[in-house]
Write a structure and sequence with these properties.
alpha+beta, 2 domains, 16 helices, three-stranded antiparallel β-sheet, seven-stranded antiparallel β-sheet, elongated, 10 strands, Protein Transport Mog1p, Chain A
Length: about 425
């Protein structure tokens, strides 16, 4: 599964922007190789609690740092702490939130060790920072079911310094706090470092439902365009390649060129879409009504190039009646609204409003995520003209992705299907 080019670019920028804030407290090279206070203090260093802007978690770190933050996903963020002038020469980065929000394919994360490895990969991606972790040990952390600590060396360009990181796992979240810099300052930081998940922070809500509807395509792409665009906008960055790619996709695949055509396409997907086309093909062009058997359809369409699409439409109608393959259309409302936001054709709020409209209809049309996902798969088979029974088809690949996501205890489909959907943005 290829990594989404937009997500890769945004994560790189995320790390670089954080590291560029005075090298998160450093004055030159790897944070903390020159200047700063000397260690050897007998008393516990003065500390402060820094709360993430999205209200998911807090960290305890040395006092006096300047905090900045950017959202990576709706329920996952990255925090950077910049050292004050004359303060400890340290780079400090924290990441945390829902297990479903960790960048990349969450299905690959089966343990806290996997998460710790993922964080190192993210921070080293396309940057000059590398880590050599020499020791790993279990760590007792308040409010966490497990904790780990890693200690070793960090290399930045040609400079080296100490590195220390802690990782916590709650029932629903993963958290990391990492410092690198002058050994004596890292030792001071180790004395106070802590991560805490805030009470009730990871209760699943409307946004989680909306983004679950696009989870399959996001998994195929390796990330979410709307999350990437939001992260770049929040940092005041130029969307550049992300916006250009979104405009090209909307134009070439959807014939969407502006806000008006984006709205028209959204309305078409919700009110008509391929669902209506499938019913018309099945009943009007081939005369296959609800009373016809599947065997009759197969017999009637032998050697017909439309057979795969017709069978998908038939199976969807048999399973979900008038709803048919509607999940395929409704899921793609989130896709085009996300691209529309990235392209500058709508605001973030307008994008979520469109997704909410589709989500409410999905709840009315289907009774569970299992039903929604099966309708989605049959819709994909109809559209792609690929059989779900062909193990080498992209339709079968999507089915495998859904099976994997449904099996995840904290996956996107863990949000209650019957949740009350309401605008909270």
């Amino acid at each position: 599964m290829q990594k989404h080019k937009y997500l890769a670019a945004a994560l790189t920028l995320c790390v670089m922007l954080t590291a560029c804030q005075g090298d998160i407290g450093s004055k030159s090279g790897i944070p903390g190789l020159t200047g700063g206070k000397e260690s050897g203090q007998e008393a516990l260093p003065q500390s402060k609690e820094y709360v993430s802007e999205n209200g998911l978690y807090s960290i305890t770190m040395l006092d006096g740092f300047q905090q900045s933050e950017m959202s990576i996903q709706a329920n996952y963020s990255m925090m950077g702490l910049e050292s004050p002038e004359g303060g400890p020469n340290l780079s400090c980065i924290a990441l945390g939130g829902a297990k479903t929000g960790v960048p990349g394919n969450q299905g690959e994360l089966t343990s806290l060790e996997d998460y710790a490895d993922r964080i190192s990969e993210i921070l080293q991606s396309d940057n000059q920072v590398t880590f050599n972790w020499e020791t790993t040990e279990e760590l007792a952390m308040d409010g966490m079911v497990r904790g780990l600590a890693k200690e070793g060396e960090a290399t930045y360009s040609r400079s080296k310094g100490s590195a220390y990181s802690i990782y916590g796992e709650s029932e629903s979240g993963y958290y990391a706090l990492l410092v690198m810099g002058k050994p004596s300052d890292v030792e001071d930081a180790k004395k106070v470092m802590a991560v805490k998940e805030l009470e009730g922070a990871l209760e699943l809500g409307t946004k989680d439902f909306l983004f679950a509807m696009t989870a399959v395509l996001d998994s195929v792409n390796g990330g979410s365009v709307i999350h990437t665009a939001k992260m770049l906008n929040d940092t005041g960055s130029d969307l550049g390649q992300v916006a250009a790619g979104a405009k090209n996709s909307l134009s070439s695949s959807w014939e969407v060129e502006d806000k008006a055509s984006l709205q028209e396409m959204k309305d078409w997907l919700i009110t008509e879409g391929h669902h209506q086309n499938a019913i018309e093909l099945l009943e009007q062009e081939y005369g296959i009504g609800p009373e016809a058997s599947r065997e009759e359809l197969i017999e009637k369409t032998q050697n017909d190039p439309n057979q795969i699409s017709l069978l998908a439409a038939y199976d969807a109608r048999a399973a979900f009646g008038e709803a048919g393959i509607k999940a395929w259309d409704l899921s793609r409302v989130g896709t085009i609204m996300g691209f529309g936001y990235a392209a500058g054709y709508c605001t973030y709020e307008e994008a979520l409003d469109g997704m909410l409209e589709a989500a409410k209809i999905a709840q009315q049309s289907f009774g569970s995520w299992e039903e929604f996902n099966q309708s989605y798969l049959l819709g994909y088979a109809y559209w792609s003209e690929e059989s779900l029974e062909d193990p080498d088809s992209s339709a079968a690949e999507r089915a495998s992705i859904i099976k994997e996501l449904e099996a995840q205890a904290n996956g996107p489909f863990s949000v209650d299907w019957g949740i009350t959907l309401e605008k909270d943005w």
